[in-house]
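Revision sheet: structure tokens.
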Amino acid sequence: MLTFLLSLLGIALVLFTLLDVFKTVFVIGGGAGPQSSFIADRTWRLALRLHVLGSQRSHSAMRSAGPLIVLLILLAWTAELVLGWALLFPASAFEEPASLTFADRVLFATTAVIGRAGNAPALAIDGDGWETLHSVAGLTGVFILSVGIAYVLPILSAVAHKRSIAAKIHTLGDGVADMLELGRTPGGSSFELHLVALVDRIVLTAERHRARSAALRTRPSPTGSPGRPVGISPRSRCCR
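Predicted:
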């Protein structure tokens, strides 16, 4: 009975992980999955709590929060798949169940999801049905690896695009007041064209931020407020 319950727990854990991956990576505009949102929110709040206003070193360290969130999400997905498959495969699925420990099953699940390393001995599976399930476990590992790469690359592109917009806006003025003052000058007609040209890029940045909201964390504002993309700042009010 206990073995059956552990197998059900393993199935639930694998399905929950795949659901979180699907919602985080493939659902656009709906936010990340429940687990990914939790990891991103807690990590970001912890980073803000440790942030020291006015400290350049702390301000620079905050830039690592975004990559750390992505890394933690990918590690959580991988660890849950390994644990789920370790629970799903009972000791009776192997040829020598008597000498098998849970650590051996975790090692077996790790090699199934990630792959064998070096000369690590492979456990022999007893039965064609379990061999098929072993192949499915390997497919989930390939899926996580492929999705992880597909998840990270757009984030890097979005961050680079966001920073380019921030740099462009900064060249138009140091603040909203400076930008409005420049717009009122007699020679400020070309200034309006710059603002109009930025509208599409800012909208695209906002949509990318919504699509990858769990990972596109930015450095804090001078007041320490979280979650605002660098390119979407109060200065964008000049574009209205």
